[in-house]
């Protein structure tokens, strides 16, 4: 689960990390009042979407001279004008793709003088199963570009959970960032603060880009991005309350409400499979035979008829889907339950694209019998390769 910048900064502020004062704005007419509550004389107006690259992004149908999703204002009137231009518009960045994301919230905060821009992040390192720190002197830009062009400017290390974090780790970050004097003490304290927040809130990612050094030598978190472990959200009602469903894919959101594992992709063949490994194999074999999967969808081992019906409805709601492949290996999941769910879904939403069904395992003969007697125009697949070839042929002609 991701949250907005202003929400991430509120969490950092609660833990004592140095961040600028700011106000969130949901309506353009509130912008002037919000800006007036801040000190000025410089304000930063930021579009709030779950994507990076806002400053270099552009609004669809932008007027001449309009800037990106992060703008400076030198008066409350100018801050209000920027907010009016952003709210309700679609911002396109390198991370949103060409479709962009609609801006429903604006964050106005005090401007900051910048002497240096640095990068600092905490991540879950899947290889070591540890929390990893990533630091670089090249802040304010994409860390992927830094890793590609100048990897030597990135410091990465993990924290041993047996010994935990120590001041040494903070000093290691400080020296890698070229900090000196009192800045080293500030960095040690900040590293402790970020680590504490990361662990206590079950985060997956915490990125400060940029972490700035002000002209008077102090550190400040100028931007913040946070992602949380979805499997641990039940332990954090305060974090769950920050969820902005308008930022999520409607199909993925619907799937989560039925405990379905769904990820939208760009292809033309919708997939409904039980088991993550089998779902990955199904996607791979679709690509092998010359087509692209439209989604990853794992209905799980204990799916009910209702869950299968909802899964089918989610797949068919995608306008890019030109064909559907149902691939079920019944272990815990019974093939007759899948068959009943598919039939119920087709009767409810209709079937306008080719459908190939491959069933194997528990109650497979009963499942096939249910489908055969349904009167539906369903293509049977004898095995995974046969099913994949048939759906690709049906879609590609």
UniProtKB/TrEMBL annotation:
Recorded protein name is Succinate--CoA ligase [ADP-forming] subunit beta
Q: Which organism is it from?
A: Aliigemmobacter aestuarii
Sample GO molecular function, one term: malate-CoA ligase activity
Per UniProt, ATP binds at 46, 53-55, 109, 112, 117
List the Pfam families.
ATP-grasp_2 (PF08442), Ligase_CoA (PF00549)
Q: Which PANTHER family match?
A: SUCCINATE--COA LIGASE [GDP-FORMING] SUBUNIT BETA, MITOCHONDRIAL, SUCCINYL-COA SYNTHETASE BETA CHAIN
Question: What's the domain of life for this entry?
Answer: Bacteria
Residues forming the ATP-grasp domain are 9-239
Q: Which UniProt keyword terms apply here?
A: ATP-binding, Ligase, Magnesium, Metal-binding, Nucleotide-binding, Tricarboxylic acid cycle
The pathway that the record names for this protein is: One-carbon metabolism; formaldehyde assimilation via serine pathway; Carbohydrate metabolism; tricarboxylic acid cycle; succinate from succinyl-CoA (ligase route): step 1/1
Residues the entry annotates as binding Mg(2+): 209, 223
Corresponding gene?
Answer: sucC
Function of this protein? Answer: Succinyl-CoA synthetase functions in the citric acid cycle (TCA), coupling the hydrolysis of succinyl-CoA to the synthesis of either ATP or GTP and thus represents the only step of substrate-level phosphorylation in the TCA. The beta subunit provides nucleotide specificity of the enzyme and binds the substrate succinate, while the binding sites for coenzyme A and phosphate are found in the alpha subunit.
| GO annotation, cellular component aspect | cytosol; succinate-CoA ligase complex
């Amino acid at each position: 689960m991701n949250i907005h910048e202003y929400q991430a900064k509120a969490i950092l502020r609660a833990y004592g990390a140095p961040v600028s004062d700011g106000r969130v704005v949901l309506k353009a007419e509130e912008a002037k009042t919000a800006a007036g509550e801040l000190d000025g004389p410089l304000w930063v107006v930021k579009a709030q979407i779950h994507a990076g690259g806002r400053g270099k992004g552009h609004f669809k149908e932008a007027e001449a001279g309009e800037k990106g999703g992060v703008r400076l204002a030198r008066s409350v009137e100018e801050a209000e004008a920027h907010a009016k231009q952003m709210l309700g518009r679609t911002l396109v960045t390198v991370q949103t793709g060409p479709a962009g994301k609609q801006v429903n919230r604006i964050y106005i905060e005090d401007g900051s003088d910048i002497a240096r821009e640095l990068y600092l992040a905490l991540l879950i390192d899947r290889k070591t199963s540890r929390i990893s720190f990533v630091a670089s002197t090249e802040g304010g830009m994409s860390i992927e570009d830094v890793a590609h062009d100048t990897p030597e400017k990135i410091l990465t290390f993990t924290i041993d959970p047996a010994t935990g974090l120590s001041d040494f780790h903070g000093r290691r970050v400080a020296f890698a960032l070229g900090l000196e004097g009192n800045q080293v003490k500030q960095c040690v304290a900040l590293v402790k603060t970020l680590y504490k927040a990361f662990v206590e809130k079950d985060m997956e990612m915490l990125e400060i880009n940029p972490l700035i050094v002000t002209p008077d030598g102090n550190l400040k978190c100028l931007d913040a991005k946070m992602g949380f472990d979805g499997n641990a959200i039940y332990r954090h009602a305060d974090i769950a309350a920050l969820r902005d469903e308008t930022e999520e894919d409607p199909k993925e959101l619907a799937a989560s409400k039925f405990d379905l594992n769904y990820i939208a992709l760009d292809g033309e063949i919708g997939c409904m499979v039980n088991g993550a490994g089998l779902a990955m194999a199904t996607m791979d074999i679709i690509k092998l035979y010359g087509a692209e999967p439209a989604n990853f969808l794992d209905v799980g081992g204990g799916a009910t008829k209702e869950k299968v019906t909802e899964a089918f409805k989610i797949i068919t709601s995608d306008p890019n889907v030109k064909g559907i492949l149902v691939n079920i290996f019944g272990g815990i999941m019974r093939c007759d339950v899948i068959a009943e769910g598919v039939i119920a879904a087709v009767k409810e939403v209709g079937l306008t694209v080719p459908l190939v069904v491959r069933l194997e395992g528990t109650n497979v003969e009963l499942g096939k019998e249910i489908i055969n007697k349904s009167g539906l125009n369903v293509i049977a697949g004898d095995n995974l390769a046969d099913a994949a070839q048939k759906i690709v042929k049906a879609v590609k002609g």
